[in-house]
Specification:
By secondary structure, the chain is of the alpha+beta class. Helices cover 23% and strands 35% of the residues. Strands 3-4-5 form a three-stranded antiparallel sheet, covered by helices on one side. The longest helix has 17 residues. It is globular and about 35 Å long. It starts with a strand and ends in a 7-residue tail after the last helix.
Length: 74
């Protein structure tokens, strides 16, 4: 099981995620990831200041989750 915190107090089990997408809030110039467990059930990550920051966070988080089978706090 690969569980990690996507924002303060919100955790997901990446094994149950079937889709995720990067969302851009144009009004605020913020980015965040939305992880879907089903079509109707999703969880959003914390907000990032740039697209690259969001991509870097996801890369680091997934790399750590693959190598550890425990909760990862970021």
């Amino acid at each position: 099981m690969k569980i990690f915190e996507v924002k303060k107090g919100s955790f997901i089990n990446f094994d149950n995620v079937f889709k995720f997408e990067l969302i851009n809030l144009e009004d605020e110039q913020k980015y965040f990831w939305r992880f879907f467990a089903t079509k109707d059930i999703s969880c959003s990550s914390k907000h990032f200041d740039s697209e690259q920051e969001a991509k870097d966070w996801l890369h680091i988080t997934l790399t750590r989750a693959v190598s550890a089978e425990e909760i990862i706090n970021l």
